[in-house]
Design goal:
Blueprint (H helix, E strand, L loop, with lengths): L2 H20 L4 H15 L6 E5 L5 H8 L3 E6 L2 H13 L5 E4 L12 E7 L8 H11 E12 L7 E6 L5 E7 L6 E7 L6 H4 L5 E6 L3 H10 L2 E7 L5 H6 L12 E8 L1
Parallel strand pairs: 1-2, 1-4, 2-3, 4-5
Antiparallel strand pairs: 5-11, 6-7, 8-9, 10-11
Helix pairs in contact: 1-4
Bound molecules: S-adenosylmethionine.
């Protein structure tokens, strides 16, 4: 899939994504993935960080609030302009720029760390994107990213339900099939129907690979693997957000931290 097709796709998703996520309907990100991601990130005060595929900047802002000096890059002009608008309203000294993760507009060894939250698996060439992150990192810098869990976000999947209509298990298939830009259509399930009806569903190009091939790309590029997490909500969180119950059945996300040698 070409960069301009990708850009068009994400530009078309950007308005609804920004409005709905800023209203709090990206509950899997806000209450599972981001809290675990920030916990693993640890102390980044004073460090220079790059957020790859920053979207409208939610996680970039969270990391800047921890004291990091952040630059956010995204392929979508619309996401970048929403991120800048938020930065103008509440400055956190974040710079945002348009760019592709496959060809980063930075010199070698620019950043102390690089993050990519739920964006790397959306890029058409994971090998190139990981190589670019490696290049832009200073020696001993770290790369931390979250992706849809490759073992459960398989090309083919179907939920099983009990007699009360609750999800009990997920059947996964075609694990070894490499999707290469096939479009998945969905919208944040927790948003009220009248709001969902106002927007088209997101169109998300999918690029899948197996768990071992993700790990082998990191190793091949020279990264030293440091830490993994498969976050899931505790019972308290599920009481507050019942829509998250299925995230206690399978791992939706894989978070990985690795270091440039
Ligand atoms: C699922 S969204 C995640 C956004 C944000 N990181 C977050 O956690 O809310 C994926 C993001 O990756 C961006 N993206 C996709 N392909 C990209 C590429 N090749 N280079 C840079 N950004 C890309 C999209 O525009 C979108 O903002």
């Amino acid at each position: 899939m070409k960069d301009h097709n990708l850009r068009q796709c994400w530009d078309e998703n950007a308005e609804a994504w920004t409005i709905l996520s800023r209203k709090g309907y990206d509950i899997y990100r806000d209450h599972i993935n981001t809290p675990a991601f920030l916990k693993m990130l640890g102390d980044v005060k004073g460090l220079k960080g790059l957020d790859l595929g920053c979207g409208e900047g939610y996680n970039t802002r969270k990391i800047a609030e921890k004291g990091a000096i952040m630059i956010g890059v995204d392929i979508s002009e619309k996401f970048i302009s929403s991120a800048r608008q938020k930065e103008n309203e509440h400055p956190l000294y974040i710079s945002y720029g348009l760019g592709s993760g496959l060809n980063l507009p930075f010199k070698d060894e620019t950043f102390d760390f690089c993050v990519a939250t739920m964006s790397l698996m959306d890029m058409p060439n994971h090998d190139k994107a990981i190589g670019e992150a490696y290049r832009a990192l200073k020696k001993k810098g770290f790369f931390q990213f979250s992706i849809s869990h490759p073992c459960f976000a398989t090309p083919k999947w179907e939920w099983f339900y009990d007699e009360k209509g609750e999800r009990t298990a997920l059947a996964c298939g075609d694990y070894f099939k490499k999707l290469n830009g096939e479009i998945d259509e969905w919208i944040f399930g927790s948003a009220p129907q009248e709001l969902k009806d106002k927007f088209n569903k997101f169109k998300v190009p999918r690029f899948t690979r197996t768990l071992s091939s993700w790990l082998n790309i990191l190793i091949k590029n020279g990264f030293i693997l440091e830490e993994f997490d498969e976050p899931y909500p505790d019972e308290e969180t599920v009481k507050k957000f019942p829509g998250l119950a299925d995230a206690r059945i399978i791992a939706y996300f894989l978070i990985c931290r690795c270091r440039k040698g």
